[in-house]
Amino acid sequence: MNIKLKIWRQKNKNTKGHFEEYSMSGVEEHMSFLEVLDLLNEQLFQAGQEPVAFDSDCREGICGQCGVVINGQAHGPIRSTTCQLHMRHLAEDPSFKDGSTITIEPWRSTGFPVLRDLVVDRSALDRIVQAGGYISVNTGAAPDAHAVPVQKDKAEAAFEAAACIGCGACVAACPNASAMLFTGAKVAHLGLLPQGQPERLNRVVNMLNQHDEEGFGGCTNIGECAAVCPKSVPLEVIARLNRDLGRALWKGTVAHS
């Protein structure tokens, strides 16, 4: 297939970015989207031009390192990571024709400053996790199996929340650029388990304060975050976060800024 790529180019966070268009031919439907970007960069390199910077690592849908907005959708038209998007998925769109233009942008958020082209700084998510602090549990020998019973429904919910890979698609999809699905997932998977109870209330307040300090927007329950999450983290994690915050404020042990 013949396609045109309309790609955001930006040298760094202090410079103004712009779109540039590139025409490509011979793109095959079995190619992944990142392989198409690889092919484009080979052509740019051979022409003596600056290649397009983008993030990737495992390319197996595990690490969450890849991530761009494709035709207005975080990770593209399928619910997966960008590396698992193939050209055949784009070709299935009735509006997609030979010679169609594909628009590629970085994640858009104050909390995700652009480092170069499609690469953004997502270290804000790391700082939110760090704000949660440590868990004060006994670090001695491993306990016997089933020594601390965990209800099945809570264990399953904790596994669902822990599936978050921190790709940032929730932020990119949210009209408010909120990271509440990410923060809720990190709060919930510890708050549901016995070892997460001692610091449970302090953890949620500290992580929310850091979330706000990083410049992410507030949650208005639109649901776009959960709709694009490649690991299907449910929207319920935000409800659990809000319940824990309510308990913390009611008890008066901590104060949310």
TrEMBL record:
Name of a matching Pfam family: Fer2_3
SUPFAM superfamilies from the UniProt entry: 2Fe-2S ferredoxin-like, alpha-helical ferredoxin
GO molecular function, one term: metal ion binding
Top-rank EC class of the record's enzyme: oxidoreductase
E.C. number(s) listed in UniProt: 1.3.5.1
Keyword Transcription found: no
A single BP term in Gene Ontology: tricarboxylic acid cycle
Listed Gene3D superfamilies: 3.10.20.30, Alpha-helical ferredoxin
Stored InterPro entries: 2Fe-2S_ferredoxin-like_sf (IPR036010), 2Fe2S_fd_BS (IPR006058), 4Fe4S_Fe-S-bd (IPR017896), 4Fe4S_Fe_S_CS (IPR017900), Beta-grasp_dom_sf (IPR012675), Helical_ferredxn (IPR009051), SDH/FRD_Iron-Sulfur (IPR050573), Succ_DH/fum_Rdtase_Fe-S (IPR004489)
Assigned keywords, A-Z: 2Fe-2S, 3Fe-4S, 4Fe-4S, Iron, Iron-sulfur, Metal-binding, Oxidoreductase, Tricarboxylic acid cycle
Cofactor(s) the record lists: [4Fe-4S] cluster; [2Fe-2S] cluster; [3Fe-4S] cluster
Oxidoreductase among keywords: yes
Domain 4Fe-4S ferredoxin-type: 155-185
The family this protein is said to belong to: Belongs to the succinate dehydrogenase/fumarate reductase iron-sulfur protein family.
PANTHER family recorded: SUCCINATE DEHYDROGENASE, SUCCINATE DEHYDROGENASE IRON-SULFUR PROTEIN
Name under which the protein is recorded: succinate dehydrogenase
Organism from which the protein derives: Actinomyces weissii
